[in-house]
Design brief:
With about 200 residues, this protein is of the alpha+beta class. The chain has four helices and six strands; from the N terminus they run αββαββαββα. It has helices at about 10-55, 85-95, 135-150, 190-195, and strands spanning about 60-65, 70-75, 115-120, 125, 160-165, 165-170. About 25% of the residues are buried.
Amino acid sequence: MKAQDRSPNLTPIIIGFALLLIGVTQITALSALTKVILPTLIKSTTVEKIQPAKFSPQVYRLEIVDHRIRLAPATIYTRATSPEIALKQALTELLAQSPAFDPTTTIPEQTRLLNLHTSKEGIYVDLSQEFAQGGGSSSMIYRVAQVLYTATSINPQTPVFLSIEGQPVNNDYPLGGEGLTLEYPLTRQQFNQDFLAE
C-alpha cells in the first residue's frame, strides 16, 4: 500500500494571491490617476463654460412695435478678457452693416469705431465723421441711443462720453445738421428723460 500524499497543493493559493495583488495595484493606480486627472478636467470644463459668458454685451438695434420705434437688444457672446474689449466688439458689430438700407438702425453706413476706452469716469467712445452725417433729429437721437445703450450694456449705470473724430459732441460741437447737443455725463436715464420720454 502506498501512503497518500497529504501535502496541500499550493498552486491555486499562489495564483489567487497574485491576482489579488494585481487587482489592488490596479485600484491604487486608478485612484491616483483619478486624483490627478479629474480636478484638471473639472477645472478646464468650468473655465470653458464661464469664460465665454463672462462679458456678454448687447447690441442695440431698432424695431417698430405698434407704430413706435424701440431699442431691441441682442446679446453677443465673446471670449473677451475685459469689459473694454467686449464693448469694442459689440460696437464694431453694431456699426457693421450691409450696403443695403437697414431699417433696424439709423447709424450711417461706413461709420467706424475709432476708439473706445474705459476709465473711472466712464466710457469714452470716438466715432468716425460718418456718424454725424445725414438724417433728421429723430435719426440723430436714435443713433446716439443705439451707441449709448450698446456701450452701457455690461453696466447700464456707466456714463458715456461721445466724440466724433476726437471732438466731443456738446453745445460747441452739436451732432449733425440738426444740431443735437448732449449733456455730460451721458447716461441712459438722462438720455431717456431728455429725448425718448413721451
